[in-house]
Design goal:
This protein has 128 residues and is an alpha+beta fold. 44% of the residues lie in helices and 31% in strands.
Length: 128
């Protein structure tokens, strides 16, 4: 059963501007160490950061909360399986909210072009 759906679209330049203004402080506030390591190895790192940003925004929309009630950016971590498929790991208040809703699986998709990144998240729960 689908418990929530969220999607987001992010312009790469927005992330470039934030990194130029705030540098590592911005990246450490928003992204986990694993996300930073992954993105910084990529030739177009800001595009990957934008994709992860879009996943995080999509996830809180699917949870129905936004970034409030204690949910922090780094409570949502975007990783990838061996084939490159994005995976989401929740912790802290984001995990608590997902458990409260009965989420058993988080489905995620990310897409990029040269200027934009977009993501969609679907929260799956048990059938009643």
């Amino acid at each position: 059963m689908i418990l929530g759906v969220g999607m987001d679209l992010v312009k790469r330049q927005r992330i470039v501007d934030a990194i130029e203004r705030h540098g590592e402080r911005f990246k450490k506030r928003i992204f986990t160490e694993g996300e930073r390591t992954y993105s910084d190895k990529k030739p177009h790192a800001p595009l990957h950061y934008a994709g992860m940003w879009a996943v995080k925004e999509s996830l809180v929309k699917a949870l129905g909360t936004g970034f409030r009630d204690g949910i922090a950016w780094r409570d949502i971590e975007v990783g990838h399986d061996p084939m490159g498929k994005p995976e989401v790991t929740l912790s802290g208040k984001a995990l608590e909210r997902a458990e409260f809703l009965g989420v058993v699986r988080v489905h995620c998709s990310i897409t990029h072009d040269t200027d934009w990144s977009a993501a969609q998240v679907v929260l799956e729960g048990r059938h009643p």
